[in-house]
Structure formats: C-alpha cells, structure tokens
Amino acid sequence: MRESEIKEILSILEGEPNLIYFIYGSINSGKSTLIREIITNKLDKSKYIPFFIDFRTRNVLNVDNFIECLFEVDEKSKVDDFREYAKSLADLLVNGSEELSKYYLGAPIRIPKSLFDKIFAKKDKSGDVYQYMEYLFAKLNEKGKIPILIFDVLENFVFQNLCRSAPKNLQMIKELTLNGNRLLLWSLFQFLVALTKVQHLCHVFCLSSDSLFIEYVYNTGELEGRAKYILIEDFDKETSLKFMDFLAKELLKSELSKEQKELIYSYVGGKPIDIIYTINEMKYRKLEDILNEMLNDSIQKLDMLLNKLDYITPKISIENEIIEIKKEDVVNALKLFKTKYEIDKKAISTPVYIYLIKENILFLNPQKGILKPQSYLVWNAIKEIV
Ligand SMILES: Nc1ncnc2c1ncn2[C@@H]1O[C@H](COP(=O)(O)OP(=O)(O)O)[C@@H](O)[C@H]1O
Ligand SMILES: [Mg+2]
Description:
The radius of gyration is 23 Å and the shape is globular. The strands form 4 sheets. It has a 5-stranded parallel beta sheet with strand order 2-5-6-1-7, with helices on both faces. A 3-stranded antiparallel beta sheet has the order 10-12-11. Strands 3-4 form a two-stranded parallel sheet. The longest helix is centred in the middle third of the chain and has 24 residues, at about 175-200. The chain has 3 domains: about 5-230, Rossmann fold (3-Layer(aba) Sandwich); about 235-300; about 305-385, Winged helix-like DNA-binding domain superfamily/Winged helix DNA-binding domain (Arc Repressor Mutant, subunit A). It is α/β, with parallel strands linked by helices. It has 17 helices and 12 strands. It binds adenosine-5'-diphosphate and magnesium ion (MG). The site of magnesium ion has 5 residues, from helix 2.
C-alpha cells in the first residue's frame, strides 16, 4: 500500500532540506497514516529525528494554543539557559535514548519549563519560540542528525477569513484574532522557509484535508518556489481490491469473491476507512446490508443539507463581499457529478463550490483546478438524490 508515495517521501528526505511540503487530500484519505508509517517503520533511525506537532484534537485560536501544541514542557528541568538545554536535549537524542524512541511514536518538541514560562510572559512570543527550535535543530545538524518537523492538520490553525473555511463553532471569534492568526501563520511560514530554503536545517511536512486552505496557500504566491504540494488520494481501484484481499484474510480469515470486491468498490471506492469498516462488519452482517446502510447514511446527510436550504440561506464571504447561496445553484452544481466523478472548478461558481467544500461534500485539487466528491459514498448519494 502506498509504495510510490512512501518512495517519493523517502527520496525527499534523502535530499537536502529545501522546501516546505504540503501533504493534502480528502478527509480520511490516509495522510496521517502514511506519515506515521514512514516515521515508525521506514526511517533510518540513525539519521532522522521526527518532531510531530499534532493539531488534530484542538483548534488553535491564538499564539498560546499554537505554542502549547508545539512543545511538551519539561517540568523537572532546572536549566535556565535555553542553549544549554537544547544542547543536552540534542545529546540525549543523538545517543539513542528512551527519549528518542518517544519521538518515533510522534511527540512534540521538549522545552524547559523556565523558557516556556518566559515565552508565555511575553507579548511577542514567537521570536523566542523560533530561536529555540532553530538552535535545537542546528545542534542536531552538527551531530549529523536531520530533524523532520511535521504539522498534522495545519488548517486547525486558521480561520474563515483567512482561507474562507472555518469550523462553524469558531465563527464567533472576532476579526482581530483572525488577523492576529493570519500574521502568526505567515510568521510560521517565514520561519519554515528559513529552516528549509535558507538554512537547510530540517525537513518540513504540513498535512491538511482542507482544500480551501491549500488553495489559499497555493494561490497567494508567497511560498512560490519554496513549497511543494503532494496529493494523497483515496486508493486507486487496483490498490483497493488488494487492500480488500488483505483485510479479508486478516479480519475474516477467508477470501472475497471478485463480485463482492467489485460491489464494495462501487459503493465506497478507495477510501481506506470505509473499506475497513465494510469488511470488519462482514463478520456479523450481510455485505449488501452493510453497503446499503452506509449509502443510506450518506444520502440522509446530503438530503438534510439540501432540505435546510429551503429555509435558510447560507452566506459565504469572499474578500469582504457577502454572497448568498441559493439551493437551486447548489443542486445544479451537484447535478454535474451525476455522470462524472471529476469536474473542472470553472464549471461551478466560486461561492457555490466553496460552500460545498465547507460542507465536506466536495474536495478541490487546487493544482489542477479540479473538483470531486469527498468520497464515493458522497458521490453515490449525489447520484441518488439530485
Ligand atoms: N495505507 C493504509 N493502510 C491501512 N489503513 C489505512 C491506510 N490509510 C488509511 N487507513 C485507515 O483510514 C483511517 C483514516 O486515515 P488517516 O490517515 O487518519 O486519514 P487522513 O489523515 O488523510 O484524514 C485510518 O485510521 C486507518 O484506519
Ligand atoms: Mg489526518
């Protein structure tokens, strides 16, 4: 599974750090799994030290939240000087201690309590943060180790006005914070450019399922020549069928017929999580029932969304213009998918596709300008309903 993607990322790691890599793809396409598989099982552990910054479980509303995600505070340390601390941490990691094995399971950067407190007491926090990280990475480089910095679900960091998509529960947050976060994001990007393009100190991977966020980063041009984008899609058909064979053996201790596999693929496509669910459920239930229930679920969700449009009018803001989304336009946009899985984004007006992406119905590939349903299940629901 994912041999070519693993090869691509390993070959990036073999080269000198030079670019920020954005790893993007629809929800549950397997981005985090891929990166964790590489860290845990594919890396030359004598050479690389990964630092895993996990934003998955929280929304980053401000610089404080951001810093809390970046670091794990060493409460016990009495060291005051951050350089001294970074040196001893680097030594610890280089000597392959227990500490090192923690990072292979995915841990953020350790920081002494004194520095952490000092940072929190300041108004301008990011300067010290970046200085500490840079110093630590430089020390690791001196000792022949290459750090890998991974941000999982970077978009949890950003909001509506920035990338036109935000979790609904965040819409109360004031303009001010939004602008603050925008500055914070770009200061982070500048720092990441300094670490890669300028100093070649560490590899950087930013994972994201939010195609509007990726579109925003891709189109603003500020990272042009400094970033690259790697799309992790759902499995292709051949891989999906192989994955089913593997799972049937593992979970069911039996084999699936060609017809069964084709049937599963026609319902759930190459979304790994849906394939796993289906085959696991086959322990207890009939395949047709499982698939119909999954499809029905997806239909209900889409149906509810469309029904809601009968009595509320969602609004999308683009460059301070507020645009109302009409049901008719949404339905007409979805109709384009009745016969096709992929559509040129120009075929759908920007506010409508933004709305459908925010509602997790569509996914945008900003590099190719192509829209497609978030999953086969969503696609099948569209075909049933509109
Ligand atoms: N290559 C894979 N092999 C086995 N299972 C996978 C693979 N990729 C994804 N999965 C399954 O799909 C689920 C969602 O994948 P994840 O990596 O969390 O998606 P993403 O980070 O892209 O949203 C995982 O929990 C895992 O069970
Ligand atoms: Mg993920």
